[in-house]
Amino acid sequence: MNALSFSHAVHFVHDLEAVRTQLQHFGLKMETTEKESLPGTQSVITEFGLSHIQFLSITEKEAASKSFLGKEALQFLPVKQILGHLVIETSDLDGLRAQLLKKGHDLTLISGANEAEPLYTISGTLGGLAYPLIRKSSFPKNEAGHHALKEIHIRVDNPEIALYNWADLFNLQVIHNTLFLGDVALKFTKGSSNRLHALVFDTFSDTISQTEFRIGEGFYRFR
């Protein structure tokens, strides 16, 4: 059985320093480390316990257009700061590829040794909703911190169709209209954006408990 887990989300942002300031305003005491960036971009990784968010901004348009994530970011920035991608990981990349091929899809490498990390796309979309990016598990997870990602909300035109399409594609069980990547719930809700909408965290911090804020068009909820 090919176990899948949440790796990280990619959030396209216009100003990384403004994001830093906003996170500090809400009392988030997270370590942030500079990520090896793609050409024409700058990225910061913000750790949330066992998961992380990659905030990516554009520094030079022509150079950024030469990479997959940079090109996608240019379609939205600076006007729309969206949660651009969900990235999931597998310890059995060949097994996942064989599983997808049986369902009419394939994995395509989108970044090589000259880019930040090897990532793969799944061919096709579902009514405009892109499938998750895939990476191979390579490093042990960090120890759990004060915040743990528990829910991922995706807005789609038809939540039921998306739910059962992803369940079939990834061999995931539907439980109360929800899919699970490990202990992270994946929920499809009604909306026209056809992309990631919100990330929901359990927190042990009284400072940020019961707080919601947005960065561009992406929402972060702490409960």
TrEMBL record:
Pfam families in the record: Glyoxalase_3
Top-level taxon of the source organism: Bacteria
Entries under InterPro entries matching the protein: Glyas_Bleomycin-R_OHBP_Dase, Glyoxalase-like_dom
Stretches assigned to the Glyoxalase-like domain: 6-108
Protein name listed in UniProt: VOC family protein
